[in-house]
């Protein structure tokens, strides 16, 4: 399997540091506005990657966050006057 390496700017053969063990840490959504299809994309894309790796015999640890402090959130609460914690909680519900 080849994966694009954004550092080297070319596709490279996938080789995890520990044989058959893969750790995925993936950035999730940033809840500063209503949910949209881009949020689903963040979850679905890496779920597919995880399932592909599992199918091919890898032991996968998959962690995905939800960003609760970000420039977009700070900008939105400054525009609206909403409390940042209330804003992110309301959008996550």
Question: Could you please describe the fold and organization of this structure?
Answer:
This protein has 93 residues and is α+β, with helices and mostly antiparallel strands. It has one domain: 3-Layer(aba) Sandwich (Rossmann fold), CATH 3.40.50. The chain is 41% helix and 22% strand. It has a two-stranded antiparallel ribbon with strand order 1-2. A hairpin with a 4-residue loop joins strand 1 and strand 2. The longest helix has 19 residues. The N and C termini lie far apart (38 Å). The mean pLDDT is 83.
Topology of this structure?
Layout: E1 2-5, E2 10-13, E3 21-26, H1 37-55, E4 59-64, H2 71-80, H3 84-92
Parallel strand pairs: 3-4
Antiparallel strand pairs: 1-2
CATH superfamily: HUPs
Architecture (CATH level 2) name: 3-Layer(aba) Sandwich
CATH fold descriptor: Rossmann fold
Please state the average pLDDT score: 83
Please identify the oligomeric state: single chain
Task: Compute the CA-based radius of gyration.
Answer: 17 Å
Principal-axes geometry comes out as: elongated
User: Which regions are unreliable across 5 or more consecutive residues at pLDDT < 50?
Assistant: none
Descriptive terms for the model:
93 residues; alpha+beta; Rossmann fold; two-stranded parallel ribbon; 3 helices; 41% helix; elongated
Give me a quick take on this structure.
This protein is α+β, with helices and mostly antiparallel strands and 93 residues long.
């Amino acid at each position: 399997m080849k994966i694009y390496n954004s550092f080297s700017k070319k596709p490279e053969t996938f080789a995890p540091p520990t044989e058959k063990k893969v750790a995925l840490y993936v950035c999730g959504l940033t809840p500063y506005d209503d949910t949209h299809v881009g949020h689903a994309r963040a979850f679905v894309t890496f779920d597919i990657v995880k399932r592909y790796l599992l199918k091919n015999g890898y032991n996968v640890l998959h962690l995905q966050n939800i960003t609760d402090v970000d420039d977009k959130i700070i900008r939105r609460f400054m525009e609206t006057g909403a409390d940042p914690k209330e804003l992110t909680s309301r959008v996550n519900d």
